[in-house]
């Protein structure tokens, strides 16, 4: 597809020779343009690839006529008749010496475009605009002569003296296969895209797919402009204050190019029945640091041979000291939607500069977000009050007392425990412990087949429990997870003292394997299992999450499995969140992060020992009872493969065994508690015997305890993510026996859901 062609007299040539440029749209490769077969006196000087398009530079005698000869469909068939191509004379005089805005308009209203023009005219010195009008033929928005007339009337009414040229194309210019740019699915920050129906391809409204248009516009219109900036009609330059305006800065830049960096902005809400306006946009995301790259250029300073692309000028290095900011008004770009459809409301905060502009410059009264307040509480971590754990269980009776005794020994005050469908005495033990003031026990309100999973149903119920509402510190964790404080005397008091006024701390998972322990023994897990994953274990992703101790001061609205959820956005700057080494967590984690990264993990102060598999025999029972949270997933061999890590050793928690033993013995001195524990142990052993008496589970036990799986548990670092998704069956059966070279890595192709 030919987008444009221009010709002008060749510099220094006699006899009326012309140099032409033809701009072919994507897809077009330079080699598709043949160099031979040209008329006498004509030649092609260059075929340049530009963003999947091709610019052809050539020369020919005047008068110039271009014809496109297509390749014959078959070798022995005659070629199709040539297509005559229009050749235009450059209209650079329209913008000679002007400060020009160059951008695209999709279906934005004339009023929006007029606001864009007047803003940059009044505040930034723009006196011309070249607008690529991509309004589709089926649009209800103003287009063609109607749009042109509305702009002309608006410019006169606002007394704006600007040259405005509208460009249009008879064919769509969007990226093939993509939906409309003004649909939430293509809004970069829109939440819930995994639940959206993907919009059908719409080449008229899709993001611009013809990157060569910037170069074409230069040669057709902008080569003699004083300076120009690339900004769509939803993009507004920020005030330049006491600096030169962007056009003057462009001319002063040594390369003739300045960088424009944009940030997406949002309204809190647009008044019912009112159109979206730039002045409604008074909010930004507190945790989005990625900018939008655009540029400004002084053509004669940068040189006309430097290719113009969508986000940069080729071979031109912008002055790093001269960066200009702009805002992209997303409710103008994706109209008719609630702000919560375009960005998570928990990320939006009021921006003081945007509010000032809306009120003082536009004389608009935007709807502002509510102002929140922290719950009154002491600032220092040590003064916060009681620490509470909320957890869910099913058939965990043999392991409850060690877990409770350990956490009481390090300073946990309260336990809120939800159970469902227990058959090993777990629920009766917890009822008895509740009667003795050791924990609070509740029946999980989870409904099979309901919307909520068991753990989420319990957390929702826990939010209204006094033990959680009155707690100073809370954490959601499981009975196979142990808080391992590595500083001071190993207690939470020592951890809180180190935290100062921080109000959250992440406990990075350290996965502990079965340590080649096959049979179940009624002994402390902390004694038996010391083999674990390395500290840096990025794969599988299930192995490297974290849980979070947090203050109950109403920065977040509800409990979450890994961390509190529902950040109150205007309190984001009150979040003082540390990682397990006492370093601040990045703000990008504040809303919903729960997986550790190389930037966020830490073990120096505290970690969460996660005994996900225990012994092979106990894992048989774990598989049989199913999972508390993911009720639809089997805990089979693939789970064991992913979670059984025996590559290294960590005994740091064992310094707390004397304190654990003292508290455990104190509890077990109560005859009722001892009897309940022994009953659960007996039930556990009976269940193991029952399962191992079946061929299926005995074979499964044989796999778990095999030489192969014991070896694999020490070499998980060599496998790619797809191996963990596909499961251990994709691993060569003898791989664990081979002498593997240093740096050996194994992965496979795998598509779809992870195997469980």
UniProtKB/TrEMBL annotation:
The keyword Transmembrane helix applies. Keywords: Membrane, Transferase, Transmembrane, Transmembrane helix. It comes from the Bacteria. One of its GO terms (molecular function) is glycosyltransferase activity. The keyword Nucleotide-binding does not apply. It is a single-pass membrane protein. GO terms for cellular component: cytoplasm; membrane. It is found in: Membrane. This is Glycosyl transferase family 2. It comes from Pseudothioclava arenosa.
């Amino acid at each position: 597809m030919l987008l444009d062609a221009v010709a002008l007299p060749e510099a220094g040539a006699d006899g009326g020779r012309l140099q032409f440029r033809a701009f072919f749209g994507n897809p077009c490769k330079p080699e598709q343009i043949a160099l031979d077969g040209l008329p006498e006196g004509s030649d092609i000087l260059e075929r340049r690839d530009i963003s999947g398009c091709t610019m052809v530079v050539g020369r020919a005698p005047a008068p110039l006529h271009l014809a496109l000869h297509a390749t014959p469909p078959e070798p022995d068939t005659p070629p199709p008749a040539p297509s005559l191509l229009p050749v235009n004379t450059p209209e650079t005089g329209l913008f000679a010496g002007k400060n020009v805005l160059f951008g695209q308009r999709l279906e934005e209203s004339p009023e929006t475009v007029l606001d864009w023009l007047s803003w940059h005219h009044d505040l930034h010195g723009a006196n011309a605009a070249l607008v690529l009008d991509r309004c589709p033929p089926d649009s209800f928005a103003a287009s063609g002569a109607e749009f042109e007339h509305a702009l002309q009337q608006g410019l006169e009414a606002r007394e704006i003296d600007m040259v405005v040229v509208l460009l249009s194309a008879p064919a769509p210019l969007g990226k093939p296969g993509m939906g409309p740019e003004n649909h939430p699915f293509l809004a970069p920050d829109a939440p819930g895209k995994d639940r959206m129906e993907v919009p059908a391809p719409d080449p008229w409204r899709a993001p611009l797919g013809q990157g060569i248009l910037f170069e074409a516009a230069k040669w057709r219109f902008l080569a003699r402009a004083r300076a120009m900036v690339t900004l769509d009609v939803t993009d507004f330059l920020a005030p330049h204050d006491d600096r030169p305006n962007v056009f003057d800065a462009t001319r002063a830049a040594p390369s003739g190019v300045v960088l424009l960096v944009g940030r997406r902005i949002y309204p809190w809400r647009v008044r019912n029945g009112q159109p979206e306006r730039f002045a409604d946009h008074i909010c930004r995301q507190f945790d989005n640091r990625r900018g939008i790259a655009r540029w400004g250029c002084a053509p004669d300073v940068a040189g006309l041979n430097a290719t113009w692309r969508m986000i940069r000028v080729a071979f031109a290095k912008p002055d790093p000291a001269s960066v200009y900011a702009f805002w992209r008004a997303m409710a103008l770009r994706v109209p008719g939607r609630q702000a919560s459809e375009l960005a998570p409301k928990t990320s939006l905060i009021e921006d003081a500069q945007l509010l000032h502009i809306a009120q003082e410059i536009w004389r608009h009264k935007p709807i502002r977000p509510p102002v929140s307040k922290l719950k009154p509480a002491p600032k220092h971590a040590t003064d916060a009050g009681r620490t509470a754990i909320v957890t869910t269980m099913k058939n965990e009776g043999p392991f409850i007392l060690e877990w409770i005794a350990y956490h009481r020994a390090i300073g946990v005050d309260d336990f809120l425990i939800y159970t469902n469908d227990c058959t090993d005495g777990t629920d009766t033990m917890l009822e008895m412990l509740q009667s003795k003031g050791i924990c609070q026990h509740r029946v999980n309100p989870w409904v099979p087949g309901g919307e909520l999973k068991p753990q989420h149903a319990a957390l929702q119920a826990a939010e209204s429990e006094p033990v959680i509402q009155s707690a100073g510190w809370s954490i959601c964790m499981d009975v196979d997870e142990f808080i391992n404080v590595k500083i001071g005397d190993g207690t939470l008091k020592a951890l809180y003292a180190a935290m100062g006024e921080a109000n959250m701390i992440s406990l990075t998972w350290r996965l502990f394997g079965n340590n080649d322990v096959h049979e179940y023994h009624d002994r402390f897990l902390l004694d038996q299992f010391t083999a674990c994953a390395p500290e840096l274990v990025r794969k599988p992703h299930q192995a490297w999450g974290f849980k979070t101790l947090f203050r109950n001061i109403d920065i977040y609205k509800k409990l979450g499995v890994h961390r509190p959820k529902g950040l109150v956005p205007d309190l984001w700057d009150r979040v003082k969140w540390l990682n397990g080494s006492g370093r601040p967590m990045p703000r990008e984690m504040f809303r919903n992060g729960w997986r550790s990264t190389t930037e966020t993990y830490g073990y120096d102060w505290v970690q969460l020992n996660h005994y996900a598999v225990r012994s092979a025999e106990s894992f048989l029972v774990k598989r049989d009872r199913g999972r508390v949270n993911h009720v639809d997933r089997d805990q089979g061999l693939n789970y064991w493969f992913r979670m059984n890590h025996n590559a290294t050793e960590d005994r740091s928690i064992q310094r707390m065994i004397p304190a654990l033993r003292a508290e455990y013995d104190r509890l077990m001195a109560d005859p009722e508690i001892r009897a309940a524990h022994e009953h659960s142990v007996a039930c556990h052993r009976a269940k193991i015997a029952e399962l191992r008496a079946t061929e299926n589970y005995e074979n499964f036990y044989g796999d778990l305890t095999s030489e192969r799986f014991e070896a694999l548990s020490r070499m998980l670092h060599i496998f790619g993510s797809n191996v963990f998704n596909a499961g251990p069956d994709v691993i060569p059966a003898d791989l664990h026996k081979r002498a593997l070279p240093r740096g050996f890595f194994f992965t496979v192709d795998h598509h779809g859901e992870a195997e469980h």
